[in-house]
Amino acid sequence: AQSVTQPDIHITVSEGASLELRCNYSYGATPYLFWYVQSPGQGLQLLLKYFSGDTLVQGIKGFEAEFKRSQSSFNLRKPSVHWSDAAEYFCAVGFDKIIFGKGTRLHILP
Amino acid sequence: EAGVAQSPRYKIIEKRQSVAFWCNPISGHATLYWYQQILGQGPKLLIQFQNNGVVDDSQLPKDRFSAERLKGVDSTLKIQPAKLEDSAVYLCASSQGLAEYNEQFFGPGTRLTVL
């Protein structure tokens, strides 16, 4: 069955520290991969997406993600987080239909 | 460019009542999606329209949920009668076309509380 796993429900990092949010998927083939961010009271915003080609994908707001086929992973990274990055982050996969993970809530310590 | 509009933003009803949500997608976007996001979970696709036709409604509880997009623009999602487990945020999204690489743009959602 197709699924997306985000193993960390909550993550807390200090402002200025680096960040990595984990995402693993189960799919019959290499799907399209997405990361979305949801701020309180807001809709989801696409951070980046991977379809093919270079496995390191650059997104908006300084985020990047790396696709690792052997690990069925698509982890999101940022070298230095800002207080405004506090939000919920969703990994999603799909072809004809997008399946979302349960999300990771990011907290930023001042 | 205006984003996806949804109304109302919040709704509180009692179980067995009916409720309707409205969505206005980005102008020119042919594909419209309704998602249900239960607290602590990711969004789950309920129904997908291409213009005014249904592409996928496999996860829509059709005994109580209905949706329409009569003129291929605005859409309404209705629940009748509501159950406690329908408490969730209902998100509307739109994209230019059917292809999965078309970015989906999300509205702010309608938070439904069923008492």
Which structural traits does this protein have?
heterodimer, A: 110 residues, mainly beta, Immunoglobulin-like, six-stranded mixed sheet, globular, B: 115 residues, seven-stranded mixed sheet, 0% helix
Low-pLDDT runs of 5+ residues of chain A are none
Binned, the helix content of chain B reads: under 10%
Task: Please state the overall shape of chain A, judged from the principal axes of the Cα atoms.
Answer: globular
The parts of chain B where pLDDT drops under 50 for at least 5 residues are none
How would you state the average pLDDT of chain B, rounded?
93
| Number of contiguous helices of chain B | 0
Report on this structure.
The complex is a heterodimer of chains A (about 110) and B (about 120). With about 110 residues, chain A is an all-beta fold. Chain A has a single domain (about 5-110), classed as Sandwich (Immunoglobulin-like), CATH 2.60.40. Chain A has no helices and twelve strands. Chain A has strands spanning about 5, 10-15, 20, 25, 30-40, 45-50, 55-60, 65-70, 75-80, 85-95, 100, 105-110. In chain A, strands 2, 5, 6, 10, 11 and 12 form a six-stranded mixed sheet that branches. Chain A has a four-stranded antiparallel sheet with strand order 3-9-8-7, with no helix packed on it. In chain A, strands 1-4 form a two-stranded antiparallel sheet. The radius of gyration of chain A is 13 Å and the shape is globular. Chain A starts with a strand and ends with a strand. The model of chain A has no long low-confidence stretch (mean pLDDT about 90). Chain B is an all-beta fold. Chain B has a single domain, classed as Immunoglobulins (Immunoglobulin-like), CATH 2.60.40. Chain B contains no helices and eleven strands. In chain B, the strands form two sheets. In chain B, strands 2, 4, 5, 6, 9, 10 and 11 form a seven-stranded mixed sheet that branches. A four-stranded antiparallel sheet of chain B has the order 1-3-8-7, with no helix packed on it. In chain B, a hairpin with a 6-residue loop joins strand 4 (about 30-35) and strand 5. At the A-B interface, strand 6 and strand 10 of A face strand 5 and strand 10 of B.
